Amino acid sequence: MIRPLFALALLAVPAAGFAQAPQLTLEHRMLLRCSAAFAITANRQASGDAEALTYPALAARGREFFVRASARVMDEAGLDRTAIAQALEAEARDLVANSALAQVMPVCLSLLPPE
């Protein structure tokens, strides 16, 4: 049986032959979370979802934010396209699973540049 502290220590050491996973900063996580929030909302707006339509139209501005934020996180954190897609998907799943979209949208909308 592996003792809990030993197991945690093993998790902190990268496996031989594998690169250590890139560390995302809090700002990176926020950019990814807002990108996912904008993508979900834009999709729901396109489907005519009444709640999503209460937000500004995000098809163009949200997509621009998504592209710029993704490129920035990829560059700064050293992620490839697969890793950024997985990170974005994880954020989107978390937003939906925890019904957190309405909670993050006010903060995320403040990050959009003015029209």
Which helices and strands occur, and which strands form pairs?
Layout: H1 4-12, H2 26-46, H3 61-77, H4 81-97, H5 101-109
Provide a short characterization of the protein structure.
The chain is mostly helical. The chain has helices at residues 4-12, 26-46, 61-77, 81-97, 101-109.
Describe the overall structure.
This protein has 115 residues and is mainly alpha-helical. It has one domain. It contains 5 helices and no strands. The longest helix has 21 residues.
- Overall pLDDT score: 84
**What does the overall shape look like?**
globular
Number of strands: 0
Discrete helix count: 5
Beta-strand percent range: under 5%
Low-confidence segments: 1-20
Please identify the structural class as seen in this structure. Answer: mainly alpha
Distance between the termini: 59 Å
Q: Tell me about the biggest sheet?
A: none
H/E topology pattern: HHHHH
* Number of separate domains: 1
User: What percent of the residues sit in helical stretches (DSSP H or I)?
Assistant: 55-70%
> What Rg, in angstroms, do the CA atoms define?
17 Å
Keywords:
disordered N terminus; 5 helices; globular; about 120 residues; mainly alpha
